[in-house]
Design brief:
Layout lengths: L2 H20 L6 H8 L3 H6 L7 H21 L5 H18 L1 H10 L4 H20 L10 H20 L5 H15 L4 H8 L10
Length: 203
Amino acid sequence: MSFASTAQARINQAAMRLFAEKGGNQINVSELAQAAGVARGTIYNNGVEPDRLFEEVVAGLASEMHARIALASQDIADPAIAVANGIRHFVRRAHEDPVWGRFILRFAFSSNLLRTMFESQPSVDLMKGLKAGRFQFQPDQASSVLAMIGGTGVAAMLLVLDGHKTWREAGSNAAELVLRALGLEAAEARAIAANDLPPLPES
């Protein structure tokens, strides 16, 4: 990995942490450089524009996670498993990368791009499940179902980041409850939610 790419990764990680801590979408170059452990000149040399940094971080995060979840789902025939695994992947990543997780918690429902990240692959899996009779909901309820999935996933991430549950417990519980809400029987929903979770593919 080159110094430039390493520095960029540190800058992006520092920016996520600062945005999550401050709760706003503006940070200055000095505080970003200090948080990233780089010189101010390195910030500019990596093409960072402070006024656009929040949007760039969100866009990069959303596209990267969407691509990885889509890859993870492409060979799964059962949409119930795909939905459950998608929820659990988000929860596990929050455990593995708390800075990422805190950023998601802070902005999940205030950023259109982050909402799209939560809704894109689940919407595909939901429609497959509805068409196959695997899920039970009315077509005009799809947006509400997506909101339920996103809200349940974010709440599970919060439980993990605040130390109330392990990622396995929180992720499996969230997935089980969502599958129950979608019409699966209790025993099957629990079994699917407790399956081994494969690694999240690299995009």
